């Protein structure tokens, strides 16, 4: 059985998973509400700021939202994310220790890969929904299409350099379920509390597969 069935279900909620760097946990709930209202319910909060875990706690209370923790690197990250209320995890790569920690905590994981060998290694472990990262630096949509030809049983969420200009290139691929993007929550709009503007960006992103 696929160990990433739940991860695929979450990735399938909308074409874009917002990749969020939250500096102020006090803004987290309003940010999540704006993104969910705009049609992007799956939210990845990266563990890159001191506020990240508190942001996950706040976002976990938002009706209709599914909040996950990104930039999982160590087993300690996994345990802290799960304790904060994360419903899934995202990692830039994958190690045996990280995978074991996620399985022990019951945290669905979207592990990152950049090559066919990495993807095959995770497939052997039962993971067939993966993050293609860093997407643009690793060859973009043409590279992901090429990887998909011999590995049709694996689906991906490309992340890293995905933008409104190239998102459809990725989303049109048969092996892509969704893409990760940070443009739906620009830092300045978050700082300004422009939740209506963020909701508009989210709504536009939610229609990228229409």
Automatic annotation (TrEMBL):
InterPro entries: Aldlse_KDPG_KHG, Aldolase_TIM, KDPG/KHG_AS_1, KDPG/KHG_AS_2
Top-level taxonomic group: Bacteria
Reactions catalysed according to its record: 2-dehydro-3-deoxy-6-phospho-D-gluconate = D-glyceraldehyde 3-phosphate + pyruvate
Pfam families cross-referenced by the UniProt entry: Aldolase
Keyword terms: Carbohydrate metabolism, Lyase, Schiff base
GO molecular function: 2-dehydro-3-deoxy-phosphogluconate aldolase activity
Complexes and interactors: Homotrimer.
Family recorded in the similarity comment: Belongs to the KHG/KDPG aldolase family.
Name the UniProt record assigns to this protein: 2-dehydro-3-deoxy-phosphogluconate aldolase
The gene coding this protein: eda
């Amino acid at each position: 059985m696929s160990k990433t069935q739940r991860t695929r279900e979450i990735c399938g909620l909308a074409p874009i998973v917002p990749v969020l760097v939250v500096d102020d946990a006090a803004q987290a709930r309003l940010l999540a509400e704006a993104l969910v209202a705009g049609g992007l319910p799956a939210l990845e909060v990266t563990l890159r700021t001191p506020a990240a875990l508190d942001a996950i706690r706040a976002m976990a209370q938002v009706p209709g939202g599914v909040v996950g923790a990104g930039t999982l690197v160590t087993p300690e990250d996994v345990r802290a994310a799960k304790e904060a209320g994360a419903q899934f995890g995202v990692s830039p790569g994958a190690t045996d220790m990280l995978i074991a920690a996620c399985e022990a905590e019951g945290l669905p994981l979207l592990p990152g890969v950049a090559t066919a060998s990495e993807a095959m290694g995770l497939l052997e472990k039962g993971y067939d929904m993966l993050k293609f990262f860093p997407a643009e630096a690793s060859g973009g949509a043409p590279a992901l299409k090429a990887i998909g030809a011999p590995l049709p049983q694996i689906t991906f969420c490309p992340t890293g350099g995905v933008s409104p200009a190239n998102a459809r290139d990725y989303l049109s691929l048969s092996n892509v379920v969704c893409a990760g993007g940070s443009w739906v929550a620009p830092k300045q709009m978050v700082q300004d509390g422009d939740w209506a503007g963020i909701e508009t960006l989210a709504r536009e992103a939610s229609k990228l597969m229409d």
